[in-house]
Write a structure and sequence with these properties.
Blueprint: E1 10-18, E2 29-30, H1 34-38, E3 43-50, H2 52-55, H3 60-73, E4 80-83, E5 89-92, E6 98-105, H4 109-114, E7 140-146, E8 152-159, H5 165-179, E9 214-216, E10 231-238, H6 240-251, H7 261-277, E11 284-289, E12 304-309, H8 319-326, E13 332-333, H9 335-343, E14 350-352, E15 358-362, E16 380-386, E17 393-398, E18 410-417, H10 418-431, H11 436-439
Length: about 450
Amino acid sequence: MVPPEQDRLVYNIRLSSVGPGRVTGTDVVHELSGLDLAMKLHYLKGVYFFSSQVVEGLTIARMKEIMFFSLNDYYITSGRIKRSESGRPYIKCNDCGVRFVEGLCDKTIDEWLEMGDDSLHNLLVYHRAIGPELSFSPSVYLQVTWFKCGGISVGMSWAHILGDAFSASDFINSWGQYMAGLKLNGPLTLSESVAKIEKPDDPTQLAKEPLSAKQVNPVGDLWVTANNCKMETFSFFLSKLQLLTLHVKICGEDGGKKISPFESVCAVIWQCIARVKEAYEPQIVTVCRKDPYHDTNVPSNSQIISAVKANFSVTEADLNKLAMLLAEDQGLDERNKIEAAVEKENGVTDYIMYGTNLTFVNLEDVGLYELELKGHKPMFAYYSIQGVGDEGAVLFLPGPPSTESDGKERLVTITLPEDQLLKLKSELKRSGLLLATELE
């Protein structure tokens, strides 16, 4: 939540709707998989900042005009949620559109970023949860905020039921490609729904609940999850030197080829959070990665979701041992189990995934800086997740591209219960991940 005194930082909010430039057709529906429905209480938020030189001459009217074309490809995002007679949600592709939002800010982009308050990014991303009237709730909001310096931010709120962060990034990057003339408005092609994941051959697996998702109390038609405590998000950068130093610390000078920067950083954060929680250290964590077979043409929840269990004390563990556990070949892919669990009740039960366990999300390959306006990339971009459960989530993102860092800088975004964050920052400082200037 943003404090009331900061609400006025972004003002003159205006809303409109933008739909596909062509009629999709009658009775076109998008069937939602069990994995899609398991994500319905989560939302992705992204913010992209562009300097005044990049957007000079660019108008809201032009942005909307281009969006008519891009939504022809992503007509599913312009649909509305309906329920079948059994109560299972699906998307009616009725071209109702995405919600387009305009706002003004009296600060410059540099002044905004210097405030260093992650909660302020919520002012740049207009967000409303789906419901309570499902058929009137957009799944996507796009907000353009004009700053005093002439630059803009593009904020996106994306209902996770549509697809994972990689699908959300594909969606907004496609808009940029149309803006640059790299895509042309071709014939309308109806996308097929992504095939549902097959249930396990072993019937006993159907009875086992997944470790990485849990059923929650019914929420009805207002798709918001209830936390037991107040959640807060903060982020920090890791330089190329910090990442190299950490890799040597964990793997030694010559070893560790199987351990990536993502796994090294998450191993340290896992141990730091275990120290904060003391007797309740998280021994099971969830790891999310991009599916190598991800389809850029159809939004889907295809990311790999793995459960990783430590049968030893995380607080006292060797960091190399924790990092190896987080490696790609060590976790148990739980997509089948999540799918089967949701399908047991024909998709009418409510689940959460992020924050069921401490959840690590590798978004290095999300294409965060592939959104281009007039041939220029964002000066800074940021993603977070709304609806994280009490165990928290960690996002590992690329940093801004620059010649100095060779694109090797990383951004870490952590969402945890508010009362754990101050202690965690102290632990991260002791570990060398968080610099003293970032702790203030």
